Please model this.
Amino acid sequence: MEVGKISNKDLEEIIFDKIKNPRVEVIQKSGLGIDAGILNFAGDDFVISTDPITGASKGLGRLAVNVSANDIATEGADPVALLLTILMPPKSDLKEFEEIIDEALAECEKLGMDLIGGHSEVTDAVTKPLVSSTVIGRKKALKPQQPKPGDYLAMTKEAGIEGALILLLEDKENLERILTPEEINHIEGFKDKLSVVKEGKLARMYGASLLHDVTEGGVFGGIWELATRSGFGVYVDREKIPVHSGLEKICKEYSISPYNLISSGSMLILIGAENYTTLKVKLAECGIELEKIGVLKKEKSIIDLEGNNIEMPLADHLYKALALIKDKK
Model:
């Protein structure tokens, strides 16, 4: 691909002709010569989040949409619109660009969201495709429940969802040596579990006070951030954190922890004990697992049931594993 903006013809064929616009909030959609989308939320709260995808080199469109939409879901908001920035290195080809767009549009369709704008170009400022997403959501201006000591800390799905998927895609030939076919199928299935939008809506509906998607820093990083926002501490039951056997093997291969591995697709939820069972049942009806993994406490520390301190992760273990993979190639 030549350095510079993607041609208008290619933009029309690869993006604009494929965009569907089911949202009534979208007043001005994306198109040639249009530099900004226009939305009308009719008095509801406007929620916005942005994130780049820097660790992965595969599945970029899928990841880009979900990481930002998940942030919107933690506020109990409905993701409405997506803006996407894609920087491609000169060595890449148009097919790679189209794959990113097609993945993003497919995820938008699943979530009922519109791609309303963004930017794309070929530049030697990057050595691999770089994708950054911004998602805009809306929600009713309602006062949420307030967290309190004794509330349950619960977790949906399992640890390491995004990290395990990225590492399998990046180092599949090596990991196929140590994983069973069933474990590979399980981890490959994570691509359909990256969204927390559904559990975010249900959690707010059934009394959750605070939500947090498990991104960089993994489960332990997420617990620290959620506890900090709540103003309280947490007793954590490590044994209750769901860790799949395939993830255990992957972590052993790279000498990393499943608790410190990025896990977009899993949500941490603070909820009163009186509402936990109802939420668990409602999520199970949608095929989403929920596990109580801790309890909120007054003292501002994060400890396990044996009294050991759980430290705030300094960096996500995904990057350590990716560095090892790079060194072997």
